[in-house]
Every structure is written in C-alpha cells, then in structure tokens.
Amino acid sequence: MDSSAKATPKSRRTRTRILDAAMGLFAEVGYHATSNGMIADAAKMTRGAMLYHFPTREDLVEAAVAHIEAARARLFEAAGAQPHPPGVDAAEHAIDAYWSLLHEIPFVAFAELEAAARTDAMLRERLAPAQAAFDRAQVGARFGAMVQAGDDPRFQTSRDLGRFLLEGLAKGAMTYDEAARRERLLAVVKRAVRMLNRKGDVHELWTE
How much is the pLDDT for 150? Predict the structure, then answer.
C-alpha cells in the first residue's frame, strides 16, 4: 500500500497502540530487553502486521521516541496548568509536581532510553533532538513557579539545580532507609531553590 493508506484513522490508532506498547515495555523491562516480537504481543497483533507500520527497528525507535516525548509533554502541560494550593510555596509545588512526573511511565521510559543510548549509537542519534528540545524548554518554565523571579543565569541555575537533582534522585540506588533519606534530600532541594529564587538576596549559594 502507498503511504496514504497508513495515514487513515484506523492506521493511526494501530500505530498508537504499537507505540504505547513499546513505551510500556521500555519502562517495565528495559530498552535492550524489549524485542519487536514482545511489542507486537503487547499490542495484540502479529509481528508481520507490526512490520507493515514499522518495517525496521530504526523506524520503530524513531517513532517511539517522538511518541514518548509527546506523552511527556502532555503530562507536563497538565501538571503546569494546575495552580499551586493556597499557602503552599510555588517553587515547592513545582518540585513536588516534577518529582511525581518522573515516576510516570513516559518519563520512566524516556530515562531508560537515555541510559541505553550511552552504548547504542542508533538510539543516541534519534534521542538527541528530543533531549535538546526538552532542555531548551527549561523544565521550570512549564510550571511558572521556578521562573517567576527572572530569567538571568542565577534563576536558570535554580531551575537546573531542581531539575537535575530530582532526575538524579529518581535514578539513584538507595539501599537503606530510602524514604527518610529521600525526604531529607527533597527538603534540601526545595530550600536551595527557594534561596536562589529570592530577588536581591545575597547568600552563599550565589555569590555574584
């Protein structure tokens, strides 16, 4: 069939089902452990039918990266549209919201792809544009809370500090007293971001 046949509503639904299955498996068992056959089984279709939509592994990976990134963006926008509760610090609310997002399937799947890309050149090449787009979007800007103080290097640093510490914490491997250690770290992250976001304050976290 020509390419127009693959653009029908039915075909788009089928592609979405395949990509949802891939995303779930990447998050659950990992990228390298997920075969095309497993994806076809999870999507409840034959491998031949899946190959009609994605003839090569490269085609599937490229579409899956875009699909996962779009799913992350939707979750992000939905979280950003929620106002912070009365009496709750806006930056703290943003940090809690992003921490929660990091445990959603699209975010877990994307983190798995980032880890796998270190030793997979094909995946690394296809992942790079999505990584760059997410980085340029400046995570805090989606919530508003972390950017309300301004856009200069100090406030960019506050956003980066919150983002990368949370992402690192989500990927970390604590082997004892996990809940208490995690809560202490989150409290310190919130405190540091609040300090950096205070207009005009001079403190040890930012000396310029």
Answer: 58
